[in-house]
Amino acid sequence: MAGHDGHLPGIAAERLKAARLRERFAASRPFTPEMPGDGRRFDPSREPSPAAVLIPLVQRPDGLAVLLTRRTEHLRDHAGQISFPGGRSEPDDADPAATALRETEEEVGLARRQVEVVGELPVYTTVTSYSVTPVVGLVTPPFDLALDTFEVAEAFEVPLAFLMTPAHHRRHVFTFDGGQRQFLSMPWHGPGSDGQMREYFIWGATAAMLRNLYRFLSD
After folding, report:
1. Class of 3-36+46-218 per CATH?
2. What is the mean pLDDT of residues 66-84?
3. Residue 104 in contact with residue 110, Cβ under 8 Å?
4. Do 93 and 102 contact (CB within 8 A), yes or no?
5. Torsion angle defined by CA atoms of residues 25, 118, 122 and 7, in that order, rounded to the nearest 10 degrees
6. The whole model's pTM is what?
7. Domain locations in the chain?
């Protein structure tokens, strides 16, 4: 680990409430993401494919919580990683929100009628040539999840306040392809879907999009 960002200010609890999030997205102020992508794409000749993920903010009595998934270990891409529900856009999808809601329903069984889309963050480009639109939605409980067990091993929640605290944002540096790359992580120790306490290593594109959300809500 190269360090953490505890020197940055946290976000006041009032600004992490559903009503304030609606106001912030409705304001439509210009916003430039701190992290527009992973870095140089593996295949620069390949045109990025459109995709979308849902950042599901579950409205719990003690505050908003982010619903995340852990991918199954046998997948070819990003096996075992923590991610948002989402995926590649299909021709029938009207917009990124439609992609995110469809993919969320397919992956974890969360019905779109329980998601209030409040806005989008700027596109995030991955090294695997996807242009991902993060769609932010407020989720109203109660709900029952039905996981696609081929893709999703587990779904769990992390308090938004934890993820929006820069002291929990760790910086890492590694050498790749003759140069150095950096990435963020936000390790979380908390209850899994079965109630047992576990360590979850949130990193890569998921952590970067959460960092962009932090900057957006700080503005």
Report:
1. alpha beta
2. 80
3. yes
4. yes
5. 60
6. 0.93
7. 3-36+46-218
